[in-house]
Amino acid sequence: MIGPVVDPRARTLLRQGAGLIRDAAPEPLRTNLMVAFDYARCGPSWFLAETRAMLAYPTHERITALTQPLLVIRGAHDSIARPNWAGRLSSQVTRGSVETTAGHRHNVVHSLPSEVALRIGRFADTLPDMVRRP
Q1: CB 73, CB 120: distance < 8 Å
Q2: 120 half-sphere exposure, CB direction, 13 A CA radius
Q3: What pLDDT digit, counting tens, does each position of 90-126 carry?
Q4: Which of 94, 58, 75 is nearest to 86 (CA)?
């Protein structure tokens, strides 16, 4: 999981929106432009429908059914995937781990893709062969 959203303690449109605004201001310009373009392209109807679905999805409950190891990656300054939320998710599975990238925010997969890929690769290398096979 990269920057998991909707901590059940922040499960309102207002709290998620505030976190997004807090997070977006210091994100790199190219990241904010990409996000703004995507939001504009999808339109308000789709955006609101997806937001409702996102707020309703019980990630914290569903994660307990996971039978495979879990890596949670977040930016150190991510105001959406906060440390306690990432930690709770990783602690609910048999083999969970949290990686935090210094100096980055919620959209770390866009602002630091090579580091994210490296961390995923390192995590995958620690898994037994039987887990890595599709």
Answers
A1: yes
A2: 13
A3: 999 989 999 999 989 999 998 899 999 999 999 999 8
A4: 75
